[in-house]
Amino acid sequence: MFCRNCGSEVAEQAVVCVTCGCSPRNGKNYCQNCGAETNPAAEVCLKCGVKLTVVAKTGDKSKLAAGLLGIFLGGLGIHRFYLGYVGIGIAQIIVTLITFGIGGIWGFIEGIMILTDVIDKDAKGMPLRE
């Protein structure tokens, strides 16, 4: 197997390329099968004909955890703090306190929206992992 970032040969189980320090599956410059230089927009290697792998980047935040936090602790904005939206989390606490808990419906609804993929990114714009 070859590093998609620098083209160096790496072990099949490698999680990092020792030449460039990147994950060997995350680049777009070289074919993972033959090591030939490729066009970053190409889907197939023109030298060996293999489909070029593309690893979709996902965040480290769990969709299930965020959704359940929203459903059970949504009034306190815990799910928003978990996803990195500190300002919205503070706003949810204030609304819940001012409305004597009725504002907790906001977080409950957002918890359902997270679980149904209406809200699918964290504050950094990274997709939530399954």
TrEMBL record:
Subcellular location(s) of the protein: Membrane
Domain (TM2): residue spans on this chain: 60-112
A GO CC annotation given for this chain: membrane
InterPro entries linked: TM2, TM2D1-3-like
Membrane topology: Multi-pass membrane protein
Residue intervals passing through the bilayer: 64-82, 88-109
Origin: domain of life: Bacteria
Record keywords: Membrane, Transmembrane, Transmembrane helix
PANTHER family found in the cross-reference section: BETA-AMYLOID BINDING PROTEIN-RELATED, TM2 DOMAIN-CONTAINING PROTEIN DDB_G0277895-RELATED
Protein name according to UniProt: TM2 domain containing protein
Record organism: Syntrophothermus lipocalidus (strain DSM 12680 / TGB-C1)
Phylogenetic lineage: Bacteria, Bacillati, Bacillota, Clostridia, Eubacteriales
